[in-house]
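Section 5.1 Outputs to date
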Amino acid sequence: MKRQFDGVKALFFDYGGTLDVPARHWSTVIAEAYEHAGLSVAPHAYREAYVWAERQLGRPGKVDCQSNFAQLLRLKLDIQTAYLRERGALSLSAMAMREKLEQMVAYCDEMVRRNLDMVRPKLELLSRKYALLLVSNFYGNLRAVLQNYDLLVFEGVIESAAEGVRKPNPELWRRALERAGCKPSQAVIVGDSMKNDIAPALELGCTSVWLKGEAWTDEPEPQNESLIVVSSFEEVAQLFGV
């Protein structure tokens, strides 16, 4: 499956849904965590709570920049479950809810650690051949998350909360090109979202690898010679011969 990428100097990766839980959307992973903790929530109520929590976490200063992933997830789930309890979609007491919340945090944290243990060696090999940069819509604590998971292979981290611009605005990817000192033809972008990752990359003229899996909404596959579609991180690594 190895492809020829003549002249490519840098690989730009999305993080959430691409590296931490490859080809999965976090809404689905967290829904699984609810089930794992024995909590039943109607799909429409869960989706509303998920969106509400994302909006709250996007507020400046809401997330401590030193928070690791477990701490971030605990805050996210606290916001979600409070929203659900206030609307009668969850009926547990605050004490019982705290116990369930910790079960959900442990479930998701363990999943990420397990996935990154598989991804990390491949990224380390790729870093010997290419400059690796991370480009993510995140909450201001991505560097702390990477430190906690010992994922320190990236030469640069371009994070929406720090940059003041969010994907799908291609500006976030353009800044990655500038910091890597690359032309679009010299970089390959890898992401799980057509809207946030692939479409902006193609707009800039970069070759794009779509790690296509679970999605928040239906994402049609465009016909573009600069688009490569895979279904696992293992396939991504194989493209580059590792």
